[in-house]
């Protein structure tokens, strides 16, 4: 692949980096999973915050027929905080209303902590492969939320807007994403665990 301005070469992959301005603080967009000769594909571009700016972390859960309330997580999420602030007050009651439900979460460090595994020992969980956002429908929900976010000028505005988007996210969109799970699994296997169109 010829050397292109703004596209550093790294042997097996390329990385496009550009600064599109600011969304909530300084943002950089990067894609680092291309192969030599592969064309730039804007659907694989991801926004990442690169400056120390105010922001929020949220937790939410989706099912085919419903979704949980969206919870704002303040500060750093540890395993103990995940149990105290998310699992015990939100996941437990949410799952109690869904007989036979299977709980799934990714393998982020707070999710795999011993205290979390101890808490979930009586909950049916779905084993989840490491590094597999291509398989998780909620990752696409978060992406949709981020793309719909208006410019916010305070943390309070950000919290209000995120909650508003969550409440008004059509359940049809969630169902459509969940219905793609069989195809996601097939694509992931065909790609040998590598990137897929999802």
From TrEMBL:
InterPro entries: RNaseH_sf, Tc1-like_DDE_dom. GO terms for molecular function: nucleic acid binding. It comes from Araneus ventricosus. Residues 28-150 form the Tc1-like transposase DDE domain. This is Tc1-like transposase DDE domain-containing protein. Gene3D superfamilies: Ribonuclease H-like superfamily/Ribonuclease H.
């Amino acid at each position: 692949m010829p050397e292109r301005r703004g596209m550093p070469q790294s042997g097996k992959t390329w990385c496009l980096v550009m600064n599109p301005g600011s969304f909530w603080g300084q943002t950089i967009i990067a894609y680092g999973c291309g192969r030599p000769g592969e064309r730039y594909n804007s659907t694989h571009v991801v926004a990442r915050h690169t400056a120390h700016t105010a922001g929020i972390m949220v937790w939410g859960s989706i099912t085919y027929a419903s979704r949980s309330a969206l919870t704002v997580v303040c500060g750093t999420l540890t395993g103990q905080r995940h149990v105290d602030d998310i699992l015990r007050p939100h996941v437990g009651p949410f799952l109690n209303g869904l007989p036979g439900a299977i709980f799934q979460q990714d393998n982020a460090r707070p999710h795999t902590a011993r205290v979390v595994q101890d808490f979930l020992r009586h909950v049916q969980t779905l084993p989840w492969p490491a590094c597999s956002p291509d398989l998780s429908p909620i990752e696409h929900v978060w992406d949709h939320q981020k793309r719909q976010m208006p410019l916010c000028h305070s943390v309070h505005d950000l919290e209000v807007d995120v909650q508003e988007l969550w409440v008004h996210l059509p359940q049809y969109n969630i169902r459509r994403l969940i219905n793609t799970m069989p195809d996601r699994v097939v694509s992931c296997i065909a790609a040998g665990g590598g990137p897929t169109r999802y």
